[in-house]
Structures are given as C-alpha cells and as structure tokens.
Amino acid sequence: MTGLAGTDNFIWGLTALARTALFFLLLARKNYKEFPAFFSYISADSLQSFILFVSYRKFGYASTSIISYRIAWATQAVVLTARALAVAEICRHLLGRYRGIWELAWRILFAIAGSVLLYASITARHEWFMFTPNLARSIELAIATGIVGLFLFARHYEIVPEPLISSLALGFLLISCLAVLNATVLERFVHSYEVQWTVLNMLAFFASLLVWTWAFLQPRTAPVKGQALSTDDLYKTIGQEVNVRLRQLNEQLSRFWKVDGDQN
C-alpha cells in the first residue's frame, strides 16, 4: 500500500501475472459458477491493483499522497469485504449439505461481521482515518479465526473437506494470519517496518495465488446429480460418510430451525 521499487516492484509484477492467470483459469474452467464469491474476490483484487497503479502514477504513493492513501484504503475495504464473502462461501461448501448446521453457521458469521464493524468504530474513536485500517485488521483476524474454527469443527466431526476447499481455506488463512501479524508490528514500528510490511503481504498473497491455481488445475470428481431424496433416504445414503454425532447435531439443529436436515 506504500511505494513500489526494486524488489517490491518485481514481486508486484509476479503477483499480477499469477492473479491474471488464475482469473482466466477460473473463466476457462467455468469455476466462477460454483465459486462466484471467490471469483468476485479475485476480480476485485485485480481491479484494485489497476486503480492503485493509476493512482500512484498520478498522485504519488500512499505514504506521501493523502489522495492515494484514501483510494488505497477505500479499495482495500472493498477487497476485504469480497474476501470475507469468499470465506463464507467456503463455509457453505463445507457445511451447506447439513442444513441445520449451516443455519447456525451463517448466523454466527453474520454476528462476527457486526462485531467487527462495532470494534473498528470503537477503536477508531473520532479519528475516522483509522476506521478502515482497524476494520481491515479486525476482518483479517475474524477470517483467520473463522477458518481455524471451521476446520477444528470438521476434524471433530470427521468431515473430510474436498482438497480444493482445503486449498482455498489455506490460502486465505495464510493471507489473514500474516496481515494481522504485520498490522500489529507495523502499528508499533511504522517507519522502520513499512517496506518489510509491504513485501511480506505481497509474498503471502503470491503464495496463496500459487496454491489456489494449483488446486483449480487438479481434476475433480463431478458431483452426482439425481432425484432428490427424502431426509430419511439421504441419511441412509450418506451413512458411511457422516458419523452419528454429526447426524444427531444436524437433526437437533434442523428441528430448532425447522428446516430439512440435509440437501444434495
């Protein structure tokens, strides 16, 4: 978000190429239909990169131009929102077949989003130029915590995620964890750590792009589509895949939310 020179410029170029390759891969394989939120996130990040490139050339870097600073954080807020929605999409892919559990999960995600906005408003106080940076760190922390919690839940109930879902989650976790760590360190050593902060964030995103691209290049087993099953039939069909505790939890939550327990 500051200047781009030397090593920074080289990494930025590699990241731009990797992001463009992933964008067209998603288009070519029509993955945007199954992962619209993830595709929107990659699109938003690509658009932000272009806007910042133009802004830096016209107004100077964000570290020296208030206009570029505001543009950078405004576009970053959009990208972070898109990233949070992409992570919610991962949760839906993992838990969506268990309607009762998913009804609880999306409410928790919504509550976290509200808490993040409230926290950013309180910590910014009257210094509203700090609202977006605080919001960014809060969202990154919420994303990292949510992903870890999601996979701890999956491990506890022996839900085996698809490799693609695991790879997407790993990429987001890498970005968010490093972003939270960097933001915390940058807050204390803003001048001496500024260059390293930029480089490390770009490296984390570049690594995530490679993980995502590799994951989308792998062959996938097409989901079996057929006649919708009743809840009882579906439980029998997936009985080998779902343990008893998970089925019981899903049944209890389904009765609580008054929805069908599973779906294809």
How would you portray this structure in words?
With 264 residues, the chain is an all-alpha fold. It has one domain (7-216, 229-257): Rhopdopsin 7-helix transmembrane proteins, CATH 1.20.1070. Helix content is 75%, strand content 0%. The chain has helices at residues 7-28, 36-59, 66-95, 99-124, 131-156, 163-188, 194-217, 231-237, 244-257. Helix 6 (163-188) runs antiparallel to helix 7. The longest helix is centred in the N-terminal third of the chain and has 30 residues, at 66-95. The chain is globular and about 60 Å long. The N and C termini lie far apart (43 Å). The relative contact order is 0.12.
Report low-confidence residues grouped into runs of 5 or more.
222-231, 234-240
Which CATH class? Mainly Alpha
Strand residues, percent: under 5%
**Which CATH architecture is right?**
Up-down Bundle
The topology string of helices and strands comes to HHHHHHHHH
Q: Choose one word for the global shape.
A: globular
Largest sheet, strands/sense/barrel = none
Q: Helix coverage percent of residues? A: over 70%
Q: Kindly provide the radius of gyration, computed on alpha-carbon positions and rounded to a whole number of angstroms.
A: 21 Å
Give the helix tally: 9
How many discrete structural domains? 1
